[in-house]
Specification:
The complex is a heterodimer. Chain A is mostly helical. Chain A contains 14 helices and no strands. Chain B is globular, with a radius of gyration of 22 Å. The chains are: A mainly alpha, B alpha/beta.
Chain lengths: 314, 470
C-alpha cells in the first residue's frame, strides 16, 4: 500500500492550546508589571530583568546539554521563571544576584527534580528565599534613586501612615514587579479572561487574608489599613502569578480553594506576627510543600458515586 | 368537541405532572434559563456544517457485501447459510449465538461467496459471510403488525428477531436492554438525540427527515414499560429538531422533549441520563438501576422497523465527511457495503487523507485500510487531511488541571495516566481509574499533548483482564 494512513487511539483531535502558548500568555500578562517597574526604578531594573531571564534560559540550556537531555527551553517556562524572579528582586540589586538566583531556581529547584512539571516548589520563589537568606542585606535594601527608606508595608507594620493611592499605582519602594497593584491586576485580568488561571486560588487567598487581618491585625475593619496590606508587598504578584503556578498548586478544584485559604492564613500570620513585614513568599513555599497532602484529601468524587464517611467513596 | 377539549386538558395536566417529577429530581427547570447539562466536557470544532444540509441518499453496493459475524457485544452469530446458497434481501444469514447476541440478515440478494475471516474496522480478522450482489434486490416478505395487538413479549421477540443492536457505537443487543429485571421500575425511556460527537450528522438528518419513525420506535419501547415516560433528549444546537419533535408530540401524553446544552460528551450514556433526568449512575451500574433505558436515534428507528414492519436491521445511516472528502454526504447504507464505495459515492478524496476514522473524531477508530465493511455500529467515515495526534509531540505534564476541569467522570486524568504509565494498578484503581468513560476530553484539552485517554484506556483493559482471570 503506497498511501499509508496514520492510526492512533481516540480521540483524533487536539485543542490548539500548548504549554508554550500558556507560558507566552503568562509572560505577556507580566509585561505591564515589568514595564511599570522599569518606568518606576529606571534602566537598571531593565538590565536586571534581562540578565535574570537570560541566565534562567542559559542555565536550562546548559543543564540539558550536560545531561544529554532534549532541549526544553522552547516551552518558555524558563523565561517565565526568570521574569518572575527578576520581578521579586530589589531594583538596585547587582546583576550577579540575578545570575545566582536564576541558576538556583532553574538548576536546583527545577531541573534536579526532573524539569518542568516535577519541581515541588515554585522555582522563582525558592530562589528568592535562597537569596533572602544568603544575601539578606542586598535583598532587603530597597533604597534607590527614586525612593529612600522603608517599603510601605514596613511603614504600615511600624504603625506609620502611608499613601494608599501611591501604593495602588505603584509609586513606592519595593521589588521591581510588586509595587504596582494596577499593573498586576491588569495582567491578571488578561490571564483570567483567557482562562489560563481562574479565581479559585487568588480569590480564596485574598478573601481569607482580608478576614484574617481584620480579625487579628489589631486595627479592626480599618479600610486604609486593609487596602495598604492588599496593595503592599508581594501579595498581588504572589496571589495571581506565583500561587497559581500550575506545577506547584493542587490539581483538584477543591484543593485549590483549600490551598488559597491556607496561603491567606499563613501570609496573615507572617505579616502580623513575624519579624518581617513580608510573608507572601514563605507562605506560598509552605503551601507548595503541603500540595501533595491537600491533593490527597480533596480528590473529587467520581460521577455517579456518593461520598461516605471517612472521605472514601463507595 | 367537548371531548377533545377535555383530553387536551388532561394531557396538559399529565405533562405538568411529569415535568414536576423531572424538575424535582433535577432541581432546575428549563424555563429558568438553566440549561440541562453535566459538569465538565469540552467544545471542540464541530464540523457539522460540512454535511448537515445534505439529505440522506441511498447507496447501492457494487461489489461484494461482507457481514462480520461479530458486529455486536456478546456471542458471535452462527451462519445458517453455506457457500453457494442463494439469498434474498432480508433473509436470515446468521442466527444469534446466545441471548446476548444478535442475528444478521442479508441486505442484498445474491449468492453466498464464502464464509471466511475478513478484516473489520478495528483491524481484527473476523469470520464473515461474503455475499456476491446480484443487483436485483429481491426481498423476502415481511410480517407487519399493529403495535396495539402485540404483547410485551412479542415486541421484545420482534426486536430480537430483527437483529437490532445499539447503533451508537457499542453494539449492545437492544432486546437485552429492553428486558431489564424489573420493567415496572423503568421511569424513563430516553432517546439519545444529542449527537454530541463532532462531524456526525446522521442522527440530525434522521430527526429532520423521518422524525415520525423515531417517535414510532419510541412508542414501541414505551409499550414495554407501563410506568415510563419517553424523553427525546436533543442538544440545543439542533433547535429545528426540538421544534419538530415538540410539534409532533403535542398530543402525546407520555413523551417529553428535553433540550440539552451543546457540549461533548452530552450524549454519553451517564451524562445524558443525568442531564435529562437528574439521576446519576457510576461505571458499575446500568441505566436500568436509575430507572432508565437509553437508545440512540438509529436504534430507535430500527426498533420501530422491526416491531411494526417486521423488517430486520439491514441499513444504517452513515455520515461520510471530513476535509479530505470532495462532497461530504449522509448515506443510507446497506450493512456490509465496503468503505471504498462510500468514499467514491461522496466524490472521492480531494487529496490523500492523513487519517481516516470510522466514527467521530472523539470516539472513533483510526483505520489503516478502507477495505472494510460497514457494520451495524459504523456511524461515520471521517477523512482528515491533517492528523492532530501525530503532529503534536507529548511533553511533560505541567499539572495545569485542564483535564480535571474537562473530565465528565470527575476523576483526575493526569494522575491516572501517570499511574498507568508506571504500571501502578493499585493506585490506578484506588483513584477511581475504572470510572473513566474513555470519552477523550482529557486528551483533547491537554496542553502538553499527553496521550491521557490512551494510557488510561490501556490500563483499564489490563485491570479488567485481571479481574476476569480471578
Amino acid at each position: 500500500m503506497e498511501n499509508k494512513m496514520k492510526v492512533s487511539s481516540n480521540p483524533h483531535i487536539r485543542s490548539f492550546l500548548t504549554t508554550q502558548k500558556i507560558m507566552l500568555c503568562v509572560i505577556i500578562a507580566l509585561l505591564p508589571a515589568a514595564g511599570f517597574g522599569v518606568y518606576n526604578f529606571g534602566l537598571s531594573a531593565l538590565v536586571l530583568i534581562v540578565v535574570t531571564i537570560a541566565s534562567a534560559v542559559l542555565s536550562e540550556l546548559l543543564f540539558n546539554l550536560i545531561c544529554h537531555r532534549k532541549a526544553t527551553i522552547s516551552d518558555l517556562s524558563a523565561v517565565v521563571t526568570g521574569l518572575l524572579l527578576a520581578l521579586n528582586l530589589p531594583p538596585k540589586a547587582p546583576w550577579w544576584i540575578g545570575v545566582i538566583g536564576a541558576a538556583f531556581a532553574i538548576i536546583v529547584v527545577k531541573m534536579l527534580f526532573g524539569g518542568l512539571g516535577q519541581n515541588f516548589m515554585n522555582p522563582a520563589l525558592g530562589a528568592r528565599c535562597f537569596l533572602l537568606i544568603s544575601f539578606t542585606s542586598i535583598m532587603t535594601d530597597f533604597d534607590c534613586d527614586a525612593y529612600t527608606g522603608a517599603t510601605p508595608l514596613a511603614l504600615v507594620k511600624s504603625g506609620k501612615g502611608v499613601n494608599v493611592f501611591d501604593m495602588v499605582i505603584g509609586k513606592t519602594a519595593g521589588t521591581i514587579g510588586e509595587t504596582s497593584m494596577i499593573a498586576l491586576v491588569f495582567g491578571a485580568c488578561f490571564l483570567l479572561l483567557l482562562g489560563v488561571i481562574d479565581l479559585r486560588i487568588p480569590g480564596s487567598y485574598i478573601v481569607t487574608f482580608v478576614i484574617f487581618i481584620t480579625l487579628f491585625g489589631g486595627r479592626g475593619l480599618d479600610f486604609g489599613y486593609i487596602s495598604a496590606q492588599l496593595a503592599g508587598g508581594g501579595l498581588m504578584l504572589g496571589a495571581f502569578f506565583m500561587a497559581t503556578d500550575y506545577v506547584t498548586r493542587p490539581i483538584t478544584p477543591k484543593g485549590q480553594i483549600v490551598f488559597g485559604i491556607l496561603l491567606g492564613i499563613l501570609t496573615g500570620v507572617f505579616r502580623i506576627f513575624g519579624a518581617s513585614a513580608e510573608g507572601v513568599s514563605y507562605a506560598i513555599i509552605i503551601g507548595n510543600l503541603l500540595t501533595p497532602l491537600i491533593e490527597k484529601v480533596t480528590m473529587p468524587t467520581p460521577f455517579g458515586q456518593k461520598k461516605v464517611k471517612g472521605g472514601k467513596t463507595a | 368537541m367537548n371531548d377533545c377539549c377535555m383530553r387536551a386538558k388532561m394531557i396538559g395536566a399529565y405533562k405538568k405532572q411529569i415535568r414536576n417529577l423531572v424538575t424535582i429530581q433535577y432541581g432546575k427547570e428549563e424555563k429558568m434559563g438553566v440549561k440541562l447539562t453535566f459538569q465538565g466536557g469540552i467544545h471542540p470544532y464541530d464540523g457539522k456544517d460540512l454535511s448537515k444540509d445534505k439529505p440522506i441518499t441511498d447507496v447501492l453496493p457494487k461489489g461484494d457485501l461482507v457481514y462480520p459475524l461479530s458486529q455486536h457485544i456478546g456471542a458471535p452469530a452462527e451462519p445458517v447459510v453455506a457457500k453457494g446458497d442463494h439469498v434474498l434481501t432480508g433473509q436470515l444469514i446468521a442466527k444469534a449465538g446466545g441471548f446476548v447476541s444478535a442475528p444478521i440478515y442479508a441486505s442484498v440478494s445474491g449468492t453466498v461467496k464464502a464464509i471466511e475471516p475478513r478484516r473489520t474496522v478495528v483491524g481484527d480478522n473476523v469470520n464473515s459471510i461474503v455475499i456476491e450482489n446480484d443487483g436485483l434486490y429481491e426481498e423476502v416478505e415481511y410480517e407487519p403488525a399493529e403495535l396495539s395487538a402485540l404483547s410485551k413479549e412479542e415486541i421484545i421477540a420482534r426486536v430480537q428477531k430483527g437483529g437490532v443492536v445499539g447503533m451508537g457505537g457499542a453494539g449492545f443487543p437492544t432486546h437485552v436492554k429492553l428486558s431489564p429485571k424489573e420493567p415496572d421500575k423503568i421511569d424513563f425511556v430516553i432517546v439519545n438525540c444529542a449527537e454530541c460527537e463532532p462531524y456526525l450528522t446522521s442522527d440530525y438528518r434522521c430527526m429532520i427527515e423521518t422524525p415520525e419513525k423515531i417517535i414510532r420506535g419510541l412508542k414501541c419501547s414505551l409499550a414495554l414499560f407501563d410506568n415510563a415516560v419517553g424523553i427525546l433528549a436533543v442538544e440545543d444546537n439542533k433547535k429545528d429538531c426540538v421544534e419538530i419533535f415538540k410539534k409532533l408530540t403535542k398530543d402525546e401524553d407520555r413523551i417529553l422533549v428535553r433540550q440539552l446544552k451543546t457540549k461533548y460528551p452530552q450524549g454519553a450514556e451517564r451524562q445524558l441520563i443525568y442531564a435529562s433526568t437528574g439521576r446519576k449512575i457510576d461505571s458499575t451500574m446500568l441505566p436500568a438501576d436509575a430507572g432508565c433505558v437509553v437508545n440512540n436515534v438509529d436504534t430507535v428507528i430500527a426498533i420501530g422497523n422491526a416491531v411494526i414492519e417486521g423488517k430486520p436491521l439491514m441499513h444504517r445511516i452513515v455520515t461520510v465527511t471530513g476535509d479530505a472528502i470532495n462532497d461530504p454526504r449522509n448515506f443510507r447504507v446497506r450493512i456490509g457495503t465496503n468503505y471504498h464505495e462510500l468514499v467514491e459515492e461522496a466524490g472521492g478524496f480531494k487529496a490523500q487523507p492523513e487519517k481516516i476514522v470510522s466514527g467521530g473524531p472523539m470516539m472513533g477508530f483510526g483505520i489503516f485500510d478502507l477495505d472494510v465493511p460497514t457494520t451495524k455500529t459504523a456511524s461515520a467515515l471521517l477523512c482528515m487531511l491533517h492528523d492532530d495526534v501525530s503532529a503534536s509531540e507529548p511533553s511533560a505534564c505541567i499539572n495545569c488541571g485542564m483535564c480535571v476541569e474537562a473530565c465528565p467522570g470527575r476523576v483526575v486524568p493526569a494522575r491516572l495516566a501517570t499511574y498507568a504509565e508506571n504500571g501502578n494498578k493499585e493506585a490506578f484503581v484506588e483513584n477511581n481509574g475504572m470510572e473513566c468513560c474513555e470519552c477523550g476530553c482529557c486528551s483533547f484539552v491537554c496542553p502538553a499533548k499527553r496521550p491521557l485517554t490512551q494510557d488510561i484506556k490501556s490500563m483499564r483493559k489490563m485491570v479488567l483482564a485481571d479481574r476476569r482471570k480471578k
